[in-house]
Amino acid sequence: MMEIGASLESVLSKYSLVTAFSLIGIMVWVSYLISSRITKGRIHGSAIAILFGLLLAYAGGVITGGEKGIADIACLSGIGLMGGAMLRDLAIVATAFGVRLNEFTKTGLSGIVALLAGVLLSFIIGALVAYAFGYRDAVSMTTIGGGAATYIVGPVTGTALGASSEIIALSVAAGLVKSILVMIMTPFVAKSIGLDNPRSAMIFGGLMGTTSGVAGGLAATDERLVPYGAMAATFYTGLGCLLGPSVIFVVMKIIVG
Amino acid sequence: MAIFGTALLSICLLTGLLLGKLLGIVIGVDANVGGVGIAMLMLIVVAEKLHQSGHMPQPSRNGILFWSSIYIPIVVAMAASQNVRAAITGGPAAIIAGTLVVAISFALVPLISRLGSSDDIDASVSVQQSKTDGGEQ
Known about the structure:
The complex is a heterodimer of chains A (257) and B (137). With 257 residues, chain A is mainly alpha-helical. Helix content of chain A is 78%, strand content 0%. In chain A, helix 6 packs parallel to helix 12 and helix 8 runs antiparallel to helix 9. Chain A is globular, with a radius of gyration of 20 Å. Chain B is mostly helical and 137 residues long. Chain B has 2 domains: 90 residues, no CATH class; 46 residues. Chain B has 7 helices and no strands. In chain B, helix 1 crosses helix 2 and helix 1 crosses helix 3. At the A-B interface, helix 2, helix 3, helix 4, helix 5 and helix 6 of A face helix 1, helix 2, helix 3, helix 4 and helix 5 of B.
């Protein structure tokens, strides 16, 4: 019996990407089954699948203490490759295939407005929460504000400003909370915020900014909206990293001294 | 051949990422600025040109469509490799900051949508259109 277990593990580890395809395929299949049989289609199959994914990620984090969710378990490391930035970005770009250029240009201006509003809003809210929790210096407030933008803006801003590692970790955690909440909540609020056309999808992408959150949230809502949201979100992190350590930090310093 | 489509997709992504990185260097930011977005625009423009000149047969299209159709499973795998434990154990400040910013951003979507809402009719028409276009691809 031991030999069967060891052989299985060695095959699964050696062919980790194939293992990932199998496991994710089964997860998606079960999720769509739950969606149609139990929720009668009220909750989208992909929303359930993403939720399962997040639960698995939590379990993986608890078991291994690592940072890559379930992908930290050796024989499941292929999930990290399959869901990593490389294939994710390839698939996101592929979703734009067949979209007409004028649909982007028509909605582009709203996207730019949303981007600026989204970045500034995140910094303001993050900084206010930081202040409320007693982090009252401009460096910490700006760094946590960056984390409220995305979990990349936070550490980039914090490193540039020389924030402590505790503050940087906090900013990453805030960004992770944001990205996971956007993945889970988007399908449930989509109707009430009018998220059903390319324009609102682009505004949504610009406001939220977290690429993984937007990618997951829109996938669970309506796959056709993905390219619009992703297009705007892809500029968000860059904009946040640009404004955070510069303009926003200077303003923050003037306000709190 | 399907690889032509996949290669085109890959070249667009690499070029976009390169331009995004250079854009980041130009504005002095250690991040990729819009690389994926630039790649999306490139793919749209180049594929349209190739299509018009008859250089985009179905097998080549399939090499792109496969990746588009595997998008959701990839996102599920992405969800499964997130650092969810760190998000949950990050402490109340992180959870409150993340939650507040999501709630307020959601609320802003309809507000910004209403700015210049004269395009609304166009926008809803175009999603109808892409429904029929993209339906069974």
